[in-house]
Design a protein that fits this description.
alpha+beta, HSP40/DNAj peptide-binding domain, 2 domains, three-stranded mixed sheet, two-stranded antiparallel ribbon, 5 strands, about 25% helix, flat, HSP40/DnaJ_pept-bd, DnaJ_C, unfolded protein binding
Length: about 110
Amino acid sequence: MFIDIPMTSAALGTAVKVETLDGEQEVSIKAGSSSGTVVHLKGLGITRLRGGGRGDLHVHVEIATPSKLDKAQEELLKTLAKARGEKLDDVKIHRSGDRHESSVFSRFKDAFSR
């Protein structure tokens, strides 16, 4: 299951009601969530093929970034960026695997290149 939430809701946190096999269920989206976040609803998925109860329902969060802003909205975002000490051209580029933790391949490469 995929849900789209506004960027403001992602930044501030929100609760979203989703339809499950058991009816409506509230899903909490933590403040600071990013696109690709997956929330697991334990035991609310479909029945496992070989018995053993039900699986988890995975809710994939996608952040909807506005593509068109009016002048007031644009100024508000610029003010927020300034308050956070962000520069509009401050972009960080990461190679795959470098962002959060190194991949197995990266660790082998590092070990053998010493």
